[in-house]
């Protein structure tokens, strides 16, 4: 660990109970110490199996188990290892670097290995794998099973797709416009198995959401996927393609995705993919007893929740104005506190299903929303004055253009204007005052819910806030210097589908690289990883007309660690051959 150089920050306060920014480091204090002194730890411990790999078969009864049980900011308060039904406390046997290793005796057949850790702040993590003991198992004689369905290269062509649509015109109006995803789904399933084996991928909480990508495809459009609709980047006049994506909560690795028509509402999209989504997740993680799906409020519908009933647990959010009695609840009736918010928990029937509701209030969010409302009203008034002074003849009453401007603005309900002496005069009616008062009741409040009546409020809040991970994934897909989905330079459905597959695979690679750096004690964002690797160049040195040499530029300490971590030496040997 390097010693911290002289910094501009004055360092942490004298009393560690005071809140401070964790980047403030004393010049005479090693960087490692300040990380352990970070006060608010909301991150779960690292829990991974180094060996054995998940879902493996062995022919020896005594199995060596090596795990990582560590926490970045706190100490472990509890750590257990369970083999089948026998639970053992392993906290005292974990090394100072976070490793645990021991030999265990397996039962014949299937054995379930469960690892659990919890830090002193109450954050917990767990991981479960299955190991099959078969004394007659011969690894050298293993034959890979034949793939189900058509060969891997049997991808439908655009001409075949057009002929299929000609035979069945209704396909053009379907959610997936007749596209066959068999090949891509098979590749995705095989990739998920590799991730489980090599990186201990264990998904018990799943995040689902939708987004769309605008295109520059003009009419007449050959692609039936591309349609105009509500664009999430406000390019409503352009044709767009929709993406339904499901990722794991911890790392944001894509586990399921589908492309769909760009003019379909989120709730209808979810009803079209929910059966396939549940089947895919259950197949990939069949040993996980309790799967939780985190949804956005745009997917709320009675049919969708009925389809999930008994298959997956879910957490989502509701529109607060649909439960006005809860908005009227005084803050002193909120019985609990969790990190930066207060909450009130209750049980209520939602869309025919008994659910746990959690109403949260965040004071910081309330101030921010109040500030946004005031700025929005000021901006609208400024626009009205500018438009008013732009008329050639001074208006004697409120012009139609001003009325239209107010009507189109989201803050129009909070502004009243009249004309006095050819000048705009702003005032507030009782209706306007009531509208502002009603809006203020919502400030700082969110209404979350989960199926069933057993879920606890802190758990629901934490799970729903993890939804930011999938939003980060969408930003990654749209980032102009990373994956760069936009603009999609294809205009037929089959090519757009293949391009989407490449983008999702790029996202998988980036997330795996993130995970590898974090497990190596070198956490980096995708942007930083790219910047570090971008600095590595191949240099060709010409000595004369017949002699040349190819070298990779000198690497920094961080670049050298990334070089070794990603195994880039093999690439160097290939590109520097001469």
Structure description:
The longest helix is centred in the middle third of the chain and has 27 residues, at 363-389. 32% of the residues lie in helices and 25% in strands. It has 5 domains: 1-37, no CATH class; 46-141, Immunoglobulins (Immunoglobulin-like, Sandwich), CATH 2.60.40.10; 161-296 and 467-510, no CATH class; 364-442; 535-575, no CATH class. The two termini are 39 Å apart. The strands form 5 sheets. The protein has a 9-stranded mixed sheet with strand order 11-10-9-12-13-19-16-15-14, sandwiched between helices. A 5-stranded mixed sheet has the order 2-8-7-4-5, with no helix packed on it. With 578 residues, the protein is of the alpha+beta class. A hairpin with a 5-residue loop joins strand 20 and strand 21 (548-552). The chain contains 15 helices and 21 strands.
Give descriptors for this structure.
9-stranded mixed β-sheet, disordered N terminus, 5 domains, Immunoglobulin-like, alpha+beta, 5-stranded mixed β-sheet, 578 residues, globular
Mean pLDDT: 82
Radius of gyration: 29 Å
**pLDDT under 50 segments (min length 5)?**
1-39, 142-153
Count of all domains: 5
Question: Beta-sheet strand percentage?
Answer: 15-25%
Into which percent range does the helicity of residues fall? 25-40%
* CA-CA gap between termini: 39 Å
* Shape call: globular
User: Tally of extended strands?
Assistant: 21
Oligomer: single chain
Adjacency order of strands in the biggest sheet: 11-10-9-12-13-19-16-15-14
Query: How is the main sheet built?
Result: 9 strands, mixed
Could you say which structural class the secondary elements and strand pairing correspond to? alpha+beta
Number of helices: 15
């Amino acid at each position: 660990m390097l010693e911290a150089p002289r910094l501009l920050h004055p360092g942490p306060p004298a009393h560690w109970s005071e809140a401070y920014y964790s980047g403030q480091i004393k010049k005479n204090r090693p960087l490692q110490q300040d990380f352990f002194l970070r006060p608010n730890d909301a991150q779960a411990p690292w829990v991974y199996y180094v060996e054995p790999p998940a879902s493996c078969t062995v022919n020896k009864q005594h199995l060596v188990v090596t795990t990582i049980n560590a926490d970045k900011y706190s100490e472990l308060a509890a750590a257990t290892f369970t083999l089948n039904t026998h639970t053992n406390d392993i906290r005292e046997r974990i090394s100072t670097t976070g490793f645990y290793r021991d030999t265990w005796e397996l039962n014949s057949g299937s054995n379930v290995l469960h690892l659990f850790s919890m830090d002193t702040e109450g954050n917990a993590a767990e991981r479960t794998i299955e190991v099959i003991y078969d004394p007659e198992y011969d690894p050298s004689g293993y034959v890979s099973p034949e793939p189900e369905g058509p060969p891997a290269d049997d991808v439908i062509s655009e001409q075949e797709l057009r002929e299929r649509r000609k035979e069945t015109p209704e396909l053009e109006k379907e959610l997936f416009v007749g596209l066959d995803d068999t090949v891509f789904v098979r590749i995705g399933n095989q990739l998920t198995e590799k991730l489980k084996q090599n990186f201990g991928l264990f998904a018990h909480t799943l995040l689902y959401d939708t987004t769309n990508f605008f295109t520059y495809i003009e009419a007449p459009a050959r692609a039936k996927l591309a349609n105009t609709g509500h664009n999430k980047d406000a390019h409503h006049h352009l044709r767009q393609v929709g993406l339904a994506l499901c990722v794991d909560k911890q790392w944001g690795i894509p586990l399921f995705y589908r492309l769909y028509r760009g003019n379909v509402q989120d709730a209808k999209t979810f009803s079209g993919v929910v059966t396939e989504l549940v089947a895919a997740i259950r197949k990939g993680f069949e040993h996980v007893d309790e799967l939780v799906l985190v949804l956005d409020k745009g997917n709320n519908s009675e049919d969708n929740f009925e389809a999930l009933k008994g298959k997956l647990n879910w957490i989502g959010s509701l529109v607060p104005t649909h439960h006005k009695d809860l908005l009227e609840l005084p803050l002193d009736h909120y019985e609990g506190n969790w990190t930066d918010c207060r909450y009130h928990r209750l049980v209520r029937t939602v869309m025919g299903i008994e659910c746990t509701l959690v109403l949260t209030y965040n004071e910081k969010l309330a101030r921010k929303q109040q500030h946004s409302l005031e700025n929005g009203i000021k901006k609208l008034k400024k626009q009205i004055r500018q438009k008013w002074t732009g008329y050639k003849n001074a208006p004697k009453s409120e012009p139609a253009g001003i009325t239209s401007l107010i009507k189109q603005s989201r803050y129009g309900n909070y502004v009243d204007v009249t004309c006095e002496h050819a000048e705009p005069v702003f005032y507030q009616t009782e209706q306007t005052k009531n509208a502002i008062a009603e809006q203020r009741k919502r400030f700082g409040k969110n209404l979350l819910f989960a199926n069933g009546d057993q879920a606890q409020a802190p758990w629901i809040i934490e799970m729903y806030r993890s939804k930011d991970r999938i939003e980060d994934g969408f930003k990654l897909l749209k980032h102009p210097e990373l994956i760069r989905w936009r603009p999609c330079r294809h205009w037929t459905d089959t090519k757009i589908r293949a391009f989407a597959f490449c983008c999702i695979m790029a996202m998988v690679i980036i997330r795996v690289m993130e995970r590898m750096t974090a497990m190596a004690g070198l956490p980096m964002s995708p942007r930083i990883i790219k910047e570090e690797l971008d600095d590595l160049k191949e240099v060709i040195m010409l000595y004369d007309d017949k002699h040349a040499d190819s070298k990779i530029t000198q690497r920094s300490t961080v670049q050298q660690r990334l070089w070794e971590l990603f195994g880039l030496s093999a690439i160097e040997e290939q590109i520097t051959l001469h």
